[in-house]
Design a protein that fits this description.
Layout: H1 2-26, E1 31-34, E2 37-38, E3 43-49, E4 53-57, E5 64-66, E6 68-75, E7 81-89, E8 92-93, E9 98-101, E10 109-119, E11 130-145, E12 148-162, E13 168-176, E14 189-191, E15 197-199, E16 204-208, E17 214-232
Antiparallel strand pairs: 1-2, 1-17, 3-6, 3-17, 4-5, 4-17, 5-8, 6-7, 7-10, 9-11, 10-11, 11-12, 12-13, 12-16, 13-17, 14-15, 16-17
Amino acid sequence: MQRVKLLVFALLAVSMFSTVVAAAASAALPEILKEGRVTTRPLRFEGTSRLTTRLSTLGSSVEVTCPETRTEGEFEAARPLGPFHLDFKGCTTTAGGTCTGLGEETGIILSLGTVHIVYDKLGTGVELGAAVLFLIQNTHFECTVLIVHKLILTLGQVLCLIKEINRLQKRATITCETTRTLGDPKEVTYWNDAEREVNIAEGLLSSENDSTFTMSAESGSGEVESEEIEIMA
């Protein structure tokens, strides 16, 4: 009888362990596939903007606009994340004047950080999607309007949709949007690798002349190119 009890206990333990493993396996981020398999080496990407990129701040009618954006970065081996490098070019404000990153050529703003591919929808009764989450390092730039100089600092997170997923492609369109209110991001919710909903309603913040940080938003659309891959979500 004791042996029977031990055998039942062992079977229950194996069953519980299998359930935990299965749950852990399902709690994953979208995958980047190359020839039907998860990439086992770093994957570089680069791209250009299709629309003017706009940075707006809640409560302000003035936007920073950059008509050209160059993107480059690299996903880690077998992981949908990695560093990115953005060059915003020809940057001005809607009130006039030029915006330039500290130490950069006139009209150029450099932004660095980490990019993650995440689930856009999960368990909501609608089609599953994928998005790009930009984790932005401190980005300093100066805008000059007439004789007024303003030092701007931006940091935080920006969530942008990927328009093409679940098929082989060399190019994908990434779109960042705002609501009708300047400084208010449209996409603020994603699901992490633990299948938990994450809200970043105040993901991107900006400060002017070392003042209080204010909620901000970025809008624009660009096309990113890499090897022929499939983003599975």
